[in-house]
Amino acid sequence: MKGAARGGRQTRSPELARSRADILRGTGGLRTRLVMLGIAFLFGSIALQLARLATTGGLDMVATLTEPVARSYVRPDILDRGGRLLATDIEMPSLYADPFLVQSIDEVTERLGGVLPDLNEGELRRTLSDRNRRFIWLKRGMPPKVAQRVHDLGLPGLDFRTELRRAYPLERLAGHVLGSVNVDNRGISGIERAIDDTIGVEPSHGAASNAGTPVRLTLDLGVQHAVEDELLGAMTRFEAKGAAGLVMDIRTGEMLAASSLPGLDPSQPGEALAPERLDKIQGGTYELGSIFKILTVAMALEGGNTKLDTVLDVTKPLTAGRFTIKDLHSSGRPLTVSEVFIHSSNVGSGLLALAEGPDKQKAFLEKLGLMTPMRTDAGPVAPPQLPPRFGRVEQITVAYGHGMAVAPIQFAAATAAVLNGGTAVTPTYFRGRNDAATPGARLVSAETSNSLRVLLRRNVSEREGTGRRADVPGYRVGGKTGTAEMPGRGGYQEKSVVASFLAAFPMDAPQYLVLVLLFEPKGTAEADGEVLAGRNAAPTAGRVIARIAPLLGVKPDGDVAQLPAGTP
Amino acid sequence: MHPLTVSAAFLAISSAFLLYGLSYDTRQLEARVAAEERRAELARSDIAVLKAERAHLARPSRIEPLARAQGLAPLTDKQVTDSVPASDIRTGAVNR
Asked: Quick check: is A290 catalytic?
């Protein structure tokens, strides 16, 4: 049994061994193949990864990993109409801290305080002790010299990033128009805000990059400076609390200058909060006084029942309820419409408005865009303050510029339409937005516009004209004075006025409109002790025109006191 | 050893050297590009500062006093005239 068993084993063993070897050989081949496949896969993936890195580049990845979250925005340069620089981006170092790497908070606060005295130490200590944060701005936009001193302290955990900061090389010039930017270089007011809203700004990584096409404004640096300089001079001469002035292309509405004093430094956005620094051109509304009579006379002429030689009885004061309206210097005789304008008769203007009626008066002001809020490129204009209803009193007072307050820029746009031949204009600060070849909608007839040109010119060229002190030889200036008492406690204040002068030149074919406002001028010796616009605003406008007319290329010509009039 | 194995090994080693060389060159070129870009950025930033400085120096509030100190003044209507023939100027026929 045993032998048989052994014999049996012996006889079976070669088969078994063969089959085992077969199995073994078979298994061994599979294993080798598997290992080879694995290695091939490994090498393949490495090759693929290499190829990917070679094509995409690994540096970007590194850059994004070290990029902090904060970033500033790239802004386009702002140029004036002649291509001169008004605002640009420059690189400045900004200091930040990584609290995780700061070794001694005491040392950092103490030594940094020595270089940057305006740093709030308590606040600094508090932010630096939060070691979970990895990025904290300490001071943004510092002069390179100061940055070098901080760098020389060699404090661990502090580092710099170059950021783009807005620079206004002309300081306060046109500060109100330009507006300002916030700490991230985004526009918050004025043209800067308009750039964000209409053109758009891109975030940057601190490096100077291509900021795109510069924005070209309609402002003219030379004209802007002349206006600001003359307004500043007038503020000193007449001891005024403020002044404002604008120069507008009368056909296109392009603003060549807009200034409001006291001025604003765009690099100090906090200044805008001071009430006296309010933008008086489009941020405030004022009762503009007699310059409104330009519109009243235009309305009367448009009505068709009134001509320039229509006679009005202005000898008796006008009464409306408990109010009595009379003229400052009554001539004591009936006046023609032309004389009402040149003598600036409140009674005459009231009569003209009453003759037209409240509906026509409202419709006319509506047509000129004075009843609805307006917008310019530099932001919204302060909405007009209108009388609640157009009763007899309101009709009369609005006729001579009281009881209704509008922003000067809105009034200038309305008057430009009356004087430019009768077509609507929209004030703009962006060059190329308004096209002179496509005039706006017709608001008044060419005849009315021509008559008003004659009246404005006569008001400056004639001896009894209130605007005679605005005349500039050769430039055919026309204009209208306005002296509005300012509302105060207990009614209007006689001695505190807004003196204004609205002028256009050259009056035979007006090209430019000039509006000058003086706020609370005093009756100084230069003004012969008076606060009337004819004594302060008119000569100021004259000085402005004398300076800007040559800059604007207006050709001086022989005086044309009497223009060929469409309507007598 | 099988000749195929030898040639494959040779190919692998040589391509490794080639790849390394290529990658090294690429890195060098990238570093040069980065350096050039940095220089361009620096130049651009310098230009921006210089432009701002030029505008600051040419600001009208600075130029005006300088011009007035030189005896210059704004143009007046008396200084503008139509173009006239040169002969009239010589004969003194033009008198504005």
From this structure: yes
Phi, psi of A220 (to 5 degrees): -115, 120
ipTM value of the model?
Answer: 0.73
pLDDT tens per residue across all 568 residues of chain A: 444 444 444 445 566 556 555 655 556 688 899 999 999 999 999 999 988 887 775 555 444 444 445 567 888 999 999 999 999 988 888 898 988 888 888 888 888 888 888 888 888 888 888 888 888 888 888 887 888 889 999 888 898 888 888 889 998 899 999 999 988 888 888 999 999 888 888 877 645 455 678 899 999 999 999 999 999 999 999 999 999 999 999 999 999 999 999 998 988 888 888 888 999 999 999 999 999 999 999 999 998 888 888 999 888 888 888 888 888 777 788 899 999 999 989 999 999 999 999 999 999 999 999 999 998 888 889 999 999 988 888 999 999 999 899 999 999 999 999 999 999 999 999 988 776 667 788 999 999 999 999 999 999 998 888 899 999 888 889 999 999 988 877 777 777 899 999 999 999 899 999 999 999 999 888 888 888 899 999 999 999 999 999 889 888 876 544 444 443 3
A380 and A475 both lie in a single domain: yes
> Does A542 fall in a domain?
yes
Inspect the interface and report whether the beta carbons of A91 and B59 lie closer than 8 Å: no
Contact B61 A169 (CB under 8 A): no
The answer to whether position A321 is within a domain reads yes
SS (H, E, C) A439-501: CCCECCCHHHHHHHHHHHHHHHHCCCCCCHHHCCCCCCCEEEEEEEEEEECCEEEEEEEEEEE
Burial (CB < 10 A; 0-12, 13-18, 19+), residue A514, is: buried
Instruction: Give the bridge partners for A163, in sequence order.
Output: A92
Counted across chains A and B, CB pairs separated by less than 8 A come out at 77
Domain limits for position A103: 74-216
Residues in chain A closer than 8 A to B83 (CB atoms): none
Q: Does A190 share its domain with A302?
A: no
- Domain residue ranges of chain B, discontinuous segments joined by +: 9-72
User: How many residues appear in chain B?
Assistant: 96
In a domain, A44, yes or no: no
Q: Which residue in the list A94, A180, A189, A290 is annotated as catalytic?
A: A290
- Give the count of domains, chain A: 2
* CB–CB contact A84 B54 (8 Å): no
For residue A461, the domain's CATH number is: 3.40.710.10
